[in-house]
Amino acid sequence: MNCSSKMRNSLHSQWKTLISKYSWCAGGSMFLYLRQIQTIAVPFFFSEVAHTLHRVMATAGQVIKCKAAIAWEPNKPMVIEEIEVAPPQAHEIRIKIVATGVCHTDLYHLFEGNNKEGFPAVLGHEGAGIVESVGPGVTKFKPGDKVIPLFISQCGQCKFCKSPKTNLCERSWSNERYDVMSDIDSRFTCRGKKVLQFMGTSTFSEYTVLNEIAVAKIHDSAPLDKVCLLGCGIPTGYGAAVNTAKVEPGSTCAVFGLGAVGLAAVMGCKAAGAARIIAVDVNKDKFEKAKVFGATDFVNPKEHSKPISQVLAEMTNGGVDFSLECVGNVEVMRSALESCVKGWGVSVLVGWTDMHDFSARPIQLIAGRTWKGTLFGGFKSKDGVPKLVNEYLARKLKLDEFVTHTMTLDRVNDAVELMKHGKCIRTVLNVSRQ
């Protein structure tokens, strides 16, 4: 039978929709339905349909065995293991992870947090993938959808989700377990032991399971090895500037720390119309990269005998309008605050840490400065991430420029070493074939 290209594409789309919609059915019922509508099909499609049905129905509702990088204990390299991933329960989604970034927060948990109750765990929280199957009650996702797992959920029902003042969610894993950075519940096991899901996501695994309130559906054309960065670092820095600091056109900004989060903050300052963006880092090799994202001035604290706040005050006639601390160091946090101009200066804590207390002299705030923090850049996750993906697709947001290295999952420890020594901006791990 001959079909025009237009008809062929139309039928192909119908089959895809059909397969996704009825992939949960038992085999007999599924094929009975297919037989009823076979008049719209052509033999050209049968091989693809059979293959897709076999793949989906072979794993849906079953335990999947796959590769994952497990951190068995603090301060030790991760180990590639075979784990078991349970099927999704009510309102849950099982996702095939295609790509994931390696973020400093992964290193923080592994090397700095040192809370043994947070192990063993599958790390990773900056990923993107494809829905493999869904649990009962899930209606807004289907197998085949491209998605980004979210470490900060958005249930849409709690007092935080209903408020425009915050992006927190009462149903998030982080509501009570910041110290161990994972929920008590998990769909992972390895060698008969429960393995924790780091930050509710665990993207250093070929498959993971999340509640639907922590998953964002994204555009079908989005390249997963790029948009995975929108799972954490880029929204955090970018949003810190545009949402939390609310950088104003014509203002002067200082960004402390030029990792991926800091560079995203630079990008956010530029997008908000800042006239002057001062990039501050002890690694001068990062200054050229910062220029790509919009930095206009560059300061290496090691090259000055004065406190960095004094250096910036002299450069800006009293201090910057906005400062963003993207390191996660309490001493740098204080320096960033003191670098702001009195009267209206705003300083934002962006870098993640829960290790030490921070301090400042009260006069710094009495004089009119504002000190505030941000989580995920203030973006409400399920609403914000798809919009950021669309901005990237429209070439209004940079992502490719952050990726300096690409590796496979089994080289995750190499990626960690690169980050530890400041030799990368973002390493993306190819976890599964798409």
From TrEMBL:
Which top class of enzyme applies to this chain?
oxidoreductase
Q: Which InterPro entries match?
A: ADH-like_C, ADH-like_N, ADH_3, ADH_Zn_CS, ER, GroES-like_sf, NAD(P)-bd_dom_sf
The processes (GO biological process) annotated in the record are: formaldehyde catabolic process
SUPFAM superfamilies tied to this protein:
GroES-like, NAD(P)-binding Rossmann-fold domains
Query: Gene3D superfamilies from the xrefs?
Result: Medium-chain alcohol dehydrogenases, catalytic domain, NAD(P)-binding Rossmann-like Domain
Question: What would you give as a GO molecular function for this chain, any one?
Answer: S-(hydroxymethyl)glutathione dehydrogenase [NAD(P)+] activity
- List keywords of the entry alphabetically: Metal-binding, NAD, Oxidoreductase, Zinc
The record's comment on protein family reads: Belongs to the zinc-containing alcohol dehydrogenase family. Class-III subfamily.
What protein am I looking at?
S-(hydroxymethyl)glutathione dehydrogenase
Q: Which organism is it from?
A: Paramormyrops kingsleyae
